TrEMBL record:
Domain of life: Bacteria
Organism (species): Bacteroides reticulotermitis JCM 10512
GO MF term list: catalytic activity
Phylogenetic classification of the source organism: Bacteria, Pseudomonadati, Bacteroidota, Bacteroidia, Bacteroidales
Protein's name according to its UniProt entry: Endonuclease/exonuclease/phosphatase domain-containing protein
Gene3D superfamilies named among the record's database cross-references: Endonuclease/exonuclease/phosphatase
A GO CC term attached to the entry: membrane
C-alpha cells in the first residue's frame, strides 16, 4: 500500500531563482541542475528566469530529467529584462497559454497530468497593479468547471492575512514606508498600510494556502542569507495555492531551507506533494 501511495503522488517545487540564477556562475547552471536532480521533483515552476531562451530552458530542464519545459517569453531584442516565469515537467505540458499582457512578469497556464497550473510573479512595486494581476489570474481559474483541479504558484510579492499576526509589530510596514521615501516608484502600500487584499482575494475565491494547511505558525520564504532589498525582516511572499477540488489531495508542503537555498537566491523554494 505504501508503494502504491507513493506512485500516486506528484512533487512540485516553486522557486524564484534570482535574476536568472546569477549566483550560479557555471555555463549551464549545473549547480541549480544538480540541486533539482537531488530533489527529484515531478514539476518545477520557476520565477526570474532572466536570459533564458526556450531552447535554453529545455536544455536546462533536461539536465535534471525533465523533457518538457516552457518559458513565458524569450529575452527582448533590446536587452530589456522581463523576469519571465517558466514551467518544467517529467510529464507532457499541454494546452499551454502564455499571458504577457497586463502581467508584468507573465503568466503561464498549462495542464500536466490532468491538473491546471498557473505560474506567475506579481508586480514588485505596485499594490494597485498586483490587484489587477490577481483579478486576471482568478478570472482565468474561474473559467473552468468546479471539478477541475487548479494550482496557483509563484512569488506573489504580497502579504497574507493568514500571517497578519507576524506583521502587526510594524517592522515590515515601517521598512516599506521608509523605502518609499527613498524610492518613489515603490508603491507597495494601500492608504499607507500593508495590503492584504491580493491574498484575501485568493482565499475568498476558495483557494487553499497549502503551506498554511501544514504549518499554521509563521515561516518566512524571504529573505535568505543572500541580500534581499525589499525587506530585511521576515516575509512570506512565495505561495502554493490549490482550489477546493484538491483540498483532500494534499500530502505535505514545506519551505526548503538548506545549504544550497540559503545562498543561491533571495527567496526560498516551496515544495508541495499531492495525490494525482
Amino acid at each position: 500500500m505504501g508503494a502504491n501511495a507513493q506512485e500516486r503522488t506528484l512533487k512540485l517545487i516553486s522557486y524564484n531563482v534570482y535574476w536568472g540564477m546569477k549566483q550560479d556562475t557555471t555555463a549551464h547552471k549545473t549547480q541549480f541542475a544538480q540541486w533539482f536532480k537531488e530533489q527529484n521533483p515531478d514539476i518545477v515552476a520557476l520565477q526570474e528566469v532572466n536570459g533564458f531562451t526556450q531552447q535554453q530552458i529545455q536544455e536546462f530542464a533536461e539536465s535534471y530529467g525533465h523533457p518538457y519545459a516552457i518559458i513565458v517569453r524569450e529575452p527582448a531584442a533590446d536587452g530589456a529584462i522581463s523576469f519571465p516565469v517558466a514551467l518544467t515537467s517529467k510529464y507532457p505540458i499541454v494546452n499551454v497559454r502564455r499571458v504577457v499582457d497586463n502581467m508584468i512578469h507573465g503568466l503561464i497556464v498549462a495542464e500536466i497530468e490532468g491538473h491546471h497550473f498557473m505560474v506567475t510573479h506579481f508586480h514588485p512595486f505596485s499594490a494597485v497593479k498586483r490587484g489587477h494581476e490577481i483579478d486576471l489570474v482568478l478570472a482565468t481559474a474561474s473559467s473552468g468547471s468546479p471539478q477541475e483541479k487548479w494550482l496557483l504558484m509563484g512569488d506573489l510579492n504580497s502579504v497574507s492575512p493568514l500571517d497578519k499576526s507576524e506583521y502587526d509589530n510594524g517592522l515590515v510596514l515601517n521598512h516599506i514606508r521608509q523605502d518609499m521615501k527613498k524610492k518613489p516608484h515603490n508603491q507597495n502600500l494601500i492608504n499607507n498600510e500593508l495590503d492584504y487584499n491580493v491574498q484575501q482575494k485568493v482565499l475568498d475565491a476558495g483557494f487553499i494556502d497549502a503551506f498554511k494547511k501544514f504549518h499554521p505558525a509563521f515561516e518566512a520564504s524571504a529573505p535568505t542569507k543572500l541580500f534581499y532589498d525589499q525587506s530585511k525582516f521576515p516575509l512570506r511572499y512565495d505561495y502554493l495555492y490549490v482550489n477546493s477540488a484538491m483540498q483532500n489531495d494534499l500530502v505535505k508542503c514545506d519551505i526548503i531551507k538548506d545549504a544550497f537555498t540559503d545562498i543561491y537566491s533571495d527567496h526560498y523554494p516551496v515544495v508541495l506533494l499531492f495525490k494525482k
